[in-house]
Amino acid sequence: MPHPRNPVRNRPVSARRLPRVNxxxxxxxxxxxxxxxxxxxxxxxxxxxxYICLTGVHGIMESRRDPALRRIHNRSLMTLPDGMPTVWxxxxxxxxxxxxxxxxxxxxxxxxxxxxxxNQELTxxxxxxxxxxxxxxxxxxxxxxxxxxxxxxxxxxxxxxxxGGENGEHRTSNIEHRTSxxxxxxxxxxxxxxxxxxxATLGRLRTRxxxxxxxxxxxxxxxxxxxxxxxxxxxxxxxxxxxxGAAFVWVGLSTPKQERFMAEFCRRAEGMGRTFxxxxxxxxxxxxxxxxxxxxxxxxxxxxxxxxxxTSNIEHRTSNVERGDGNTxxxxxxxxxxxxxxxxxxxESRIENQESRIRTxxxxxxxxxxxxxxxxxxxxxxxxxxAGLQWLHRLCQEPRRLWRRYLFxxxxxxxxxxxQLLGLRRYEEDV
Length: 431
Prior knowledge:
Layout lengths: L19 E4 L2 E4 L3 H14 L3 E6 L1 H9 L1 H8 L3 E4 L2 H9 L10 H11 L2 H9 L22 H16 L2 H15 L12 E5 L2 H14 L5 E5 L8 H14 L3 E5 L4 H44 L3 H20 L3 H13 L7 H6 L9 E4 L3 H5 L8 H5 L3 H8 L1 H23 L10
Helix pairs in contact: 1-5, 2-3, 7-8, 10-13, 11-12, 17-18
């Protein structure tokens, strides 16, 4: 499967700014595999969250029949062209560099970009002097182990510049102490969560992905029931995914089930985030008020044993303030760790304890990619994909499941697209 060696090394791409091609009312993102992979990782690094659809003729025709599904596609971060007919229509609209973004290939590209080897390349290629990590024009997705070398290098440079003698040694010691806690610690590697298929398939898929992409971290899996989720199951699913701290959630369900799941997940997670952030803002305000009172006590303390006793009292009171309301505070601390994974927090929030927010991961609906990467289905040859005949290859593999779909969908799609190209019908991209 062809995919870029490391798409993250390219200039970061904003998913929201990529143009779209109107295909029967569905806005299909005019992009390529390399650009789509970079945009996905950029979106994860930003912490804003959202979902990415991959659609072909089947998804577009389902969206024609279902306005709600059409809106889901048009509200996505990206709706990628997972089919040659969409690519040909993009070229007709003037997007000559638009190319097919095949689900299994996109999954492989993002996994490779977030593996240990890829992140080590990013760290080594940094152009920012002492930082030595990801350059200012690249994505901060380096591994969590890259900080040691940067600290040592900064310490060495500081020692070389301070000179000898007692003063020099004293200054060197202070510099070493400061650089041991860098202002901008390295960002840990983004992690992955697998949702869909069966337990057996997920176990096989996880093993093969971890073997193929050393260092890529899969922090959770979930095989959902073959029916609609109950409210309790929704709550458990959202808690499991947010609690895992995953940056990417790969959804291996069929169209249109996976698109509806991703949109609903984002809607529910956003609602949970608003409630959580209000609670956290209140706790932060209480904590800051307590810190201000403690600072006043420190300033008024006197020397000797009396000062020491004052310090002891201050530390005791600080501990009480930080604990707050017993179980409530401990529960919120656990929620913070679950809801704001380390990869999504900015350096300022980690160092200065600033207010942060629940951050929804990037969900990607990749359909049959689970079975293909697990080795349960044979992928089509490249020449079949480029010729736009993959539907025929899949029909030969699963005739009993797919014959009805292709018998009606393909001819209808051709008629509707011809009418759109000739200007006989107009389709609005309703959102």
